[in-house]
Amino acid sequence: MKQPQQTIKTIAVEELIHQIHSFHDDGYRLVQISCASEGDAFEVTYSFDKDLTLIHLRIPASTEKPIPSISRIYLAAFVYENEIADLFGIPFSGIAIDYKGTFIRTSIPHPFGSPQISVVKKKPEGQHE
Amino acid sequence: MSKQIIVPFGPQHPVLPEPIHLDLVLEDERVVEAIPSIGYVHRGLEKLVEKRDYKDYVFISERICGICSFIHGATYCQGVEQIMGIEIPRRAEFLRAIWSEYSRMHSHLLWLGCFADSMGYENLFMNCWKVREKILDVLERTTGGRVIQGVNRVGGVSRDMDAAELKRIEGEIPGLRDDFTELTRIFDEDLTVQTRTKGIGILPKDKAWDLGAVGPVIRGSGHAVDVRSTGYGAYDELDFKPVVRNEADCHARCLVRAEELFTSLDLIENAIDRIPAGDILAPVKGNPSGEYYARAEQPRGEVIHYVKANGKKNLLRHRVRTPTLANVPALVHMLAGCELADVPVIVLTIDPCIGCMER
Q1: What is the DSSP letter of A66?
Q2: C-beta atoms of A52 and B358 within 8 A
Q3: Using CB atoms, which residue from B50, B82, B212 is nearest to A116?
Q4: Distance CA B105, CA B136 (A)
């Protein structure tokens, strides 16, 4: 049994708050916010649920330009926004509870903000042909 | 107004099996605000997807959690199968449903035991874990693993259950139902449990929805939110009805879990009756390309596995939104205004799994 197809609507950052207000007013539950790299930039996806159907909104993102926080509309967003800020280095403006980079402790700053890991196989030292 | 003081709670605390830290802002004995901080056990498992073959990664995804490991593996596989357009054998979907329900019972019994322990109810704790052993025995017998089962594969499962095994499982269900009835009776009627849980840690119905709570936390506040209702996997053929309670307190969340034990037994009986014969693993060729948000119902609530691939053997991104992370905002709300002595009980009622949350 295959799972239902999902649609992802891409919008401009400027439209985000307006769209989120609409989802909130229509009684949607915030399911999650995720981030993934897309070429040299990033994309942030907001997922909502109502009547067991998932709907996704996507905006482009970068480490230079802050994204307006939606945590004043959906308080639950603060955990996801802090997580993305810590792992990817993408700034959010106006987070309701802002940990300022201390939500997830990592050994290097913004580990997911770096390019994809490349796997290089090396022979162990001292091993000869 | 009394002077405010901050009491640190965790990361090491007797009721916390895993580390989370809360700064509790107190006025006298009352909590005014709770500020959580996490990150003590972040392992970077999602990043590993970039250097491991997407088929090997199934085993890493199972290790995200040491309790609901099976469902993590199954949900990751669902995501990859969806973007690869793989229709897995129906029998494999039924087997996944059976093992998922065993995982749920194992997790709920573990939690009920820990919850009893947090109230100082040692005898009840031991009884819960004694029954849990019977569940773990079945998991070990059928998969080879008590905690990490390792039977999920992209395309199905690697182990089957023969007719004799299914009959044996069916024969054990009445005994388990009796055990659950006795445990549920204590959690429902015992004065100690009632005193420590009733009317405490209230999460109103509208707040539970607004704060994005999931699992027994939102179902204990009157919402029938359960991903199994979407009919993913074999659940479309099983007679499933979510357990919902309206009291919205710690007692309601506890009883949702206790009653879900019976739902799991019913679903396993259903699945054994209806499981079709056939293969358990579909052939998988090539590499995935595309993206999908797979979701499933874990013991703690809805889990989301996002997978994104570009046709290579290493995925571009794997992101897991675990139920504990989704329940943190609800926890912050429940703690504001409670008594300091109730904090451990309230924290436990979201069934926090920190290793899972931080990945």
Answers
A1: P
A2: no
A3: B50
A4: 9
Number of domains observed in the structure of chain B: 1
Distance between CA atoms of B342 and B119, rounded to whole angstroms?
Answer: 10
Q: Does B236 touch chain A (CB under 8 A)?
A: yes
Task: Report CB contact under 8 Å: A52, B39.
Answer: no
User: Which H, E and C letters describe A81-100, residue by residue?
Assistant: HHHHHHHHCCCEECCCCCCC
Average pLDDT of the residues of chain A: 82
DSSP string, A29-43: EEEEEEEEEETTEEE
Q: Do A2 and B236 touch (CB under 8 A)?
A: no
Q: Nearest Cα to B197, choosing from B113, B243, B254?
A: B254
Range of the domain at B90: 41-326
The tokens describing A53, both together, are: 């159907």
Q: Please state, as a whole number, how many other Cβ atoms lie within 10 Å of the Cβ of residue A8.
A: 14
Residue carrying structure tokens 């001292």:
A126
A108 interaction partners in chain B (CB closer than 8 Å)? none
Where does B186-316 show beta strands of DSSP type E? 289-298, 301-310
Question: In the 8-state DSSP scheme, what is residue B235?
Answer: G
Its ipTM equals 0.81
Search chain B and give the residue with CA nearest A55. B293
Architecture per CATH, domain A8-110, reads as 2-Layer Sandwich (3.30)
Q: Give the CATH number of the domain where residue B255 resides.
A: 1.10.645.10
pTM for the complete prediction?
0.87
Crossing angle of the two packed helices B69-84 and B90-118, in degrees rounded to 10: 150
Whole-number Å distance between alpha carbons of B147 and A43? 35
What counts of helices (H) and strands (E) characterise chain B?
12, 8
In single-letter form, the type of residue at position B160 comes to D
Average pLDDT, chain B: 87
Query: What is the CA angle B136-B139-B144, rounded to 5?
Result: 115
Query: If DSSP codes are grouped into helix, strand and coil, which group holds residue B27?
Result: strand
Q: How far is CA B330 from its chain centroid?
A: 17
Question: What is residue B130's predicted lDDT score, i.e. its pLDDT?
Answer: 92
